[in-house]
Amino acid sequence: MLKSEFILCEIENEVAVVTINRPPMNPLNTQVLTELAQIMGELEANSGVGAIILTGQGEKAFVAGADIHQMLELDHIGMMEMNNVSRSTFSKIENLSKPVIAAINGLALGGGCELTLACDLRISTEKARFAFPEMSLGIIPGAGGTQRLQRLVGQTVAKELLYFGEMINAQRALEIHLINKVVPAEELLPTAKDWAQKLVQKPAVALRMMKTAVNAGASVDLETALTIESACFGNAFATHDRKEGMQAFVEKRKPVFSGR
């Protein structure tokens, strides 16, 4: 088990469960963000990990935003330095070669909601709540919220959430495709682990190429995106797992992937 002051990490059956451990609200400060980036980097390099689940400690909050107490003490330069740490940490999570599932166990507000947007998939409890309250603080999201949100839910809905900053429940989040699935609290981690186990059984290179094609293609023109897809397709096709998958299909058996 990997552990730092504010981040817990347990690895079992090729699935890492990373927990932000600053209850009850798990706010993000520079140390939490730095430790989170470090843990994610270690998991990226760990060949024994195929998928990652990210959650928060306790029942009240996944992450209820950035640490306002720290922000109040910062001048403009200090705040921009903190913002750069959060931005780089979220980008690291978004660009990991391995899938990351957010298991949202409670409030996901401001920076917490931005953190979920950097994950590949999002599962929440029925009691989870989501909001971007930055406007009421005289600021705007600074760690990707204005950009990732509109790419996920569309610009019109994104502007509604960002401009008004009102809290929405899990069902509304599901309806606008902010999250993938809503489950009872007791089923949150089991469901996330079930999804993660399904992912680690996939051919690793093809899964990595799929993520690269989707993520990289989302922010470029169609022709460039198609070129990216073609390159990723070629990389997947060159693997041993592609041969195994096709041979298994012809032989009407379950493929045995090796990650090569």
TrEMBL record:
Keywords: Lyase
Lineage top rank: taxon: Bacteria
Pfam families given in the database record: ECH_1
Any one of the GO BP annotations: fatty acid beta-oxidation
InterPro entries hit by this protein: ClpP/crotonase-like_dom_sf, Enoyl-CoA_hyd/isom_CS, Enoyl-CoA_hydra/iso, Enoyl-CoA_hydra_C
Molecular function (Gene Ontology), one example: hydro-lyase activity
Family: Belongs to the enoyl-CoA hydratase/isomerase family.
Matching PANTHER family: ENOYL-COA HYDRATASE, MITOCHONDRIAL (PTHR11941:SF54), ENOYL-COA HYDRATASE-RELATED (PTHR11941)
UniProt-recorded name of the protein: Crotonase
Species in which this protein is naturally found: Brevibacillus panacihumi W25
Lineage, broadest ranks: Bacteria, Bacillati, Bacillota, Bacilli, Bacillales
